[in-house]
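Hi again,

Forgot to attach this to my earlier email, sorry! This is the prediction with beta-L-fucopyranose bound. I've pasted everything inline since the attachment limit keeps bouncing my files.
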Amino acid sequence: MKKTLLGCLSLAAIAACSTVEAPQPYGALPSDAQVEWQKMEYNLFVHFGPNTFTGAEWGNGKEIADTFNPSDLDCRQWAATAKAAGMKGIIITAKHHDGFCLWPNPVCQHTVAQSSWRDGKGDVLKELSEACKEYGLEFGIYISPWDQNDPHYGTDAYNDVFAQTLEHALGSYGEVFEQWFDGACGEGPNGKKQVYDWPKFYSTVYKRQPDAIIFSNVGPGCRWVGNEYGSAGRTCWGTMNVGEHTPSTPIDCDMLNVGNADGEKWVAAETDVSIRPGWFWRESENDKVKSVQQLLKIYYESVGRNSLLLLNVPADKRGHLHEVDSVRLMELRAAIDEIFSTDLAEGAKAEACCVRGGSKKYAASNILDADYDRYWATDDDVRAASFVINLPEARTFNRVQIQEYIPLGQRVSAFSIEALGEDGQWKTIANETTIGYKRIVHTPVTTAVAVRVNIEESLACPLINGFALYMDNIYESDEKANIPVGEIRPVAEPLVLDLGEVKTVKGFTYAPIYKGEGGCIVTYDLEVSADGTSWIKVYDDKMFENIINNPTEREVIFDEPLQAKVLRLVPVRTEVSAGAAGQASDTYGYSEFSIVE
Ligand code: FUL
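Structure tokens for the complex follow:
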């Protein structure tokens, strides 16, 4: 008591001793589980199933159970790799669109139990959940609602089968941190239409896993980022107006990418992207694993933009993460460690234009301490404010990391960063919009003795709990890496490739344009000719699986090599992405149409 009284004698401490009310939460708030989920930052996605053995991106549900036959499944290798890569959890495709279950699902006849793999006694979910426990990783499950095998699909009965499937998968393997609902459905105009019972699915998940984060296009736990190339919006709100949308209704992908200021629900963006062009492993893509440069770009555009990165590394036919991919993950880890190992704001002192009630509890120094739950705050009516980080000496950096205290809501909508040079001049080095859980801003290489962050607009009084400076000498360029440029064409104009002479052709490749601009060819006819006048149809209404969401180059190899002088790729169905669903478009983009010799 005596000590407290003495403390209050100093003027500075008077405010500390008086009660300053804590800031009120603002807008839609994350649950504790959502905050913990966001803190995970970087997780592993593993696509594995019959497609691993057939080379398909989307199976068709007609694969026999024996198709799935890993020669040496080793989930401990996946977990050890994820752990060493710095990831916090693993999500496995327990059931993809082909309907095959990687666990013995009692309500389905198309599972590991019907296969001869390990005499029908194998269980990937069991093995992976145990490996996750052993390595201290969270375990998550992807289950596709779209099912091309289940005989009930397209009828009400399927909703019960699907709910029971969820109940079994989520109730049998201990804690599940995330349930992933894929929104894709490639049935096409004549396909089966399923009216999903989403409320039933959600309640089934929560019954078994009350704290699970449910992923779908629109949450309720977290939302899809709106693309499969690994980029959250430069403006990225954790909140969004979900409105009447369900996970299976078409939705504006730009809205998913950016979210909504003041959005009615907290559904932060999850950035799912594959380390390879496709989601499933195939031999032909062993040399197409993304480079460290490409992965760093993805890291900055997801973790650095208030999103969680879910990086897919597919398991191969052995049931291992392939060595090319695991080496790349370690290279990425080493790069991230090097970039972020030294906080150049170390030893700095923070000051702010204004502190909530003049109270120490909300002082600018909270920005620099390591305690997540201590933050700098201003008075309630403040919408613009700044803080200065005074460095102990001139330091050189090109990354500024800022964190907002999201448990009380995301607030900042515009901010700038200035640097004080050794010449005594302040210079603006960045103008940005949102911060959120974590924002890593790229700036020019800057040498400064102080850095000032000006919160220019905030929906409520700003709350900042983290700041750091880094120097990245590894990432080379902000230019979009390997983005194909091309042409947008009307559907009526097929792609024609004249080889000039008759050649032996093993197959062909088609690449759309980045982001699927102008749409993609989803289904096509392929015709070949030896003279340019008489044509043979090689494929009739064949599909580039998942191309609208993942508009990467596709290689199609014919069953037998063909003799051809001219090839004609005739679009049948062209679509633009509409949140994992497709909407017809009357144009399509292409950046490449070439042969495989
Ligand atoms: C998409 C699916 O169609 C892909 O096959 C993949 O699973 C990806 C993560 O989601 O919508």
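The longest helix spans residues 323-340. The chain has a mean pLDDT of 94.

That should be everything now.

G.
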